[in-house]
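Annotated sample (chain length 556).
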Amino acid sequence: MLSVIISWIYIFLICMLIGIGTLSLLRNRHFTLVLYLMSGIIVITVYAEFFSIFAKIGGCAHAVLLVTALWCGYINRKKIQQFWKQYRPVLFSWEGFFYCCFALLIAFFTSRGEFHTDTNIYHAASIRIYEEYGMVKGIGNLQLHYAYNSSYLAFASIFSLKWLLGYSLHTTTGFLEVVMCLYAFHGLRNFQQHENHVTDMMKIGILLYTLVNVIRSMSPATDYATMFFALFIITAWCENLFEGDSNTTVYALLSVAAVFTATLKFSSCLLVLIAIYPAVRLIRDRKWKEISACIFCGCLIVCPFLIRNYFISGWLLYPFDGIDLFKTVWKIPKEYLLHDANQIKVWGRCLYDVNKIDMPVSKWLPIWWEHQFRYEKMFLGAVVLGLILQAVMLLMRILRRQRLRPPLIVLHLAIWADIAVWFFMAPFIRYGLAFLIAVIMIAAGEYLSEKKSGFYSIATGSLMFCVLVSVSPYWDQYVTDAGVFVKQRLREPYYIVQQDYDEGSMDSCDINGSKVYFSTGEEINSYHVFPGTCYKPMLERSTLIGDRIEDGFRAK
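Output written by the structure step:
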């Protein structure tokens, strides 16, 4: 736990300094603490991606980052002093005491526990590749999962500090949990004074999502980072609309953050649709400099992601064959790509057979539904009820001739577009959980914010009651899991140093004089040896381009 907490303090300081330095480029603009922090996370991630194209993520990469952070802190020292004066009374109060206790609780979960299945399959191994090589051409041939190329693993690698400690920290997911939950708690303090409760309910949604994943807080899982960023963007968008002054600059920054979220997991790409609203406002006001700056930032975020895609897989977007631009020696063969893409879909639909990829929705939907746990079915029912509740309230606003809010309409469009992608591509609940939670929470927030009377009050109240009843088993399931986890893990010896990655049983073979590892038993691609693969058949159909690992892999 101690190493986790020290790591978090260090990550916070570096991200905060970089974030303040970045947003200070917008002259005479002031933003919330969490917006500076999230900006810092984005900038550091993009930096790590660019650096990895040319060199490994080690001491040199970190030294450049540290010097830049200190420089940003020095030139913005007055702003930092203002933040300290603003938040020091909070820190040294009962509220601050609560925040510290909560951080200790999350540190407990982050110091020990279970790794996400995909962390053992490829997250940890991908981080090791960042640390040892930065990037290896055609590494997706060795194991297709490497080609997924989530930018979150770049962020995790730069703060793993293996080059310094001799072992890898994996504390970034817990860090995101603490940041998001403190943001939620701090915003919920004045719940009763708020006229509109949409933002409040979205912040409760952040707490719910954290609860769902808390026992795997030490996993640098790409799903978790993607969903946290999606929830933050949706919540901050609502906050700017209902509790701020509907600042166009904030909308634009959140749209840029949505581009970044797509690089965390490309299935969340349609969240970028929120950019429609600030784009229209900026074009209407002829603010061409701001438009150019946003486009430049979006391109800067996407560039290293696409470049790495090209080098890792030979495809611009893997596993998507619709854009086939390159002919390289390390390109993953199209038949492997299609098999991988289809496998993701059929597993998401609970079919588990690639030959069933063309099964129509009417046939696979009942199978998928039967494979969901009872509390998951109840949760999905709450999403449907939330949609009905929103439709009823929208109809009443139209009948009352109330003004509709364009930012909220665009947000709903983006949320439901992402839900559609999730459902038709790979409907594992965890892949789209942030957007499903958002439907429920926005509906609940709008219900709490409206004045109701007569039959309308009875109808909406009944729907809201049904939503609460349907969500309760989901909440209860994960509260119970967390309680059992604490009881079982209290005596584990991870109060100083964090639990290490799982080792797994690995063997090796020689390819052109270089040693490559493969799993011999359970599905664990060990972080502790490199490069490796979970699947020996993938290794057998691949070979090195040259005599060194750095030369890259190609299909035989």
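Annotation: Strands lie at 506-511, 514-519, 532-533, 542-544, 553-555.
Annotation: The chain is about 65% helix and 5% strand.
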